[in-house]
Amino acid sequence: MRLNADQVKSIKEKKVTYVPNFVPKDKRYDFNFFTELIEMYDIGINCKVNEAITPKEFLRGTYQIQEMQYKDTNAHVYLDFLRNLFKYPVHEYDGVDLFFSFASCTGRAHDDPEDVFIISLYGKTIYRVFQHPTIDTDSDYILNPGDLIHIPKGKPHKALSVGGRLIYSVGFFGEKK
Questions:
Q1: Pair 176, 87: CB distance under 8 Å
Q2: What is the DSSP letter of 30?
Q3: pLDDT tens digits for 10-57?
Q4: Among 53, 61, 62, 97, which is least packed, fewest CB within 10 Å?
Q5: What pTM does this model have?
């Protein structure tokens, strides 16, 4: 895991921070990894679409598996590394979620109640981070496998996947010490 001093400072200052090549590209993260998870664990999968969907819409949906820190050693390592580096106190809702999609899709714009560190595992995802409502310029960050983006809590953003993707979202609900 690689962060330079400027990146650490930026994250500590609660700024959106893009970190290319945060972790080495790991060939094991693909849809074979995903199917192995389903076979090993009794996994609940959350669909990020609220209404009944057609098969075509199913392929264009975004899905979530929570608490990956208990199912994948790397997810647990990422959580501990970031918690210790940025001095987050343990909070019962902290964790690592796996988000995935099978085809290109666009998530809804939202802001999170926690600081998130998004680590791209497979595929390409564009994160659009919205600036102040009165400013017209938004920022797009392209994440390839191994890249990370930190999005502070309350910062509006949305994901645009370019084909199938797997990402880890590491969330911390407590305030940094």
A1: yes
A2: S
A3: 999 999 999 999 998 877 888 888 888 888 887 777 776 555 567 667
A4: 53
A5: 0.90
